[in-house]
Design goal:
Length: about 280
């Protein structure tokens, strides 16, 4: 029996007898990330980074000089997962600040969720020069879109392999772990209490996205369905949808077409500033 099968079996049985208890255990698991070490290919970029500490102890890595691009990784991710993008942006004359999200890396906290990531983006932006762009991957991408609703100011934004709504993510997690109906409902209720928002509100269909953007997604992403990118694109008028044939959930970050698309977006965002100068 696999570990997942065992968890599903326990959740299926106890979830009917004690739904709130099982929901609480699964909520803690859902919000408690592992700190995973960098891969070998990330180490050269990590060695060249300047580590900075922002307000409330938020940790970040910085490279380059020029207009600032702010980045947010995904769940259990790291700043250096953006290595290909960071190297291209620095070569193009940008400063890149890549955050370690709450409860990740050296940033404080024990738990994380999309709203905490969004607040971290806002806190970082308050200390940094005006942002040329904000880029997020997976949950980081969802947090970028949420932070924009909360007042994050930037000339452009990029969402990579991000979900369009949190409710679908929660339902998928609960079903994958075998929680019966009452435990699933309690799980979503408890997540809402922790996040401080109704999860139905964390949906791009209700967002105002009024800046140039790029939405990138791999068709073979096994974690976040490619259809989520279509939903984000539909809700985001001034956006370009870049669907890649392959790249999964992580390898997409190094795709040359993604790098090219980001550089094109930043060049377009910089044009009005040059014209008004």
């Amino acid at each position: 029996m696999t570990t997942l099968s065992w968890i599903r079996g326990v959740n299926g049985t106890l979830g009917r007898l004690a739904p709130e208890h099982i929901a609480g255990r699964m909520r803690r698991a859902f919000m408690t990330p592992r700190n995973l070490p960098p891969r070998q290919w990330e180490l050269p970029l990590l060695a060249t980074a300047e580590r900075i500490t922002l307000r409330f102890g938020l940790s970040a890595l910085r490279w380059g000089q020029g207009p600032t691009v702010l980045m947010m990784h995904g769940w259990e991710g790291r700043p250096t997962q953006f290595a290909a993008l960071i190297e291209a942006l620095v070569a193009a004359g940008h400063t890149v600040v890549s955050l370690e999200g709450p409860a990740h890396g050296r940033s404080p906290g024990r738990q994380a969720h999309v709203a905490l990531f969004a607040r971290a983006l806002l806190e970082a932006a308050a200390e940094l020069p005006p942002l040329r762009a904000v880029i997020g991957h997976s949950m980081g991408g969802a947090s970028v879109l949420l932070a924009l609703q909360w007042g994050l100011r930037t000339e452009a934004a990029v969402s990579i392999a991000a979900p369009a709504q949190l409710l679908g993510v929660l339902r998928g997690f609960a079903q994958r772990l075998g929680m019966p109906a009452r435990a699933r409902a309690a799980f979503i209720r408890q997540v809402e209490q922790d996040v401080g928002l109704q999860v139905a509100r964390l949906d791009v269909n209700g967002y105002q996205l009024e800046l140039p953007g790029l939405i990138a997604h791999a068709s073979d992403d096994p974690l976040v369905a490619a259809s989520e990118a279509q939903l984000i694109h539909k809700a985001w008028f001034d956006s370009r949808l870049l669907m890649l044939e392959d790249g999964g959930h992580q390898r997409v970050l190094a795709d040359p077409l993604l790098v090219e698309g980001v550089l094109e977006l930043l060049a377009r965002a910089a044009t009005p500033a040059r014209q008004s100068a």
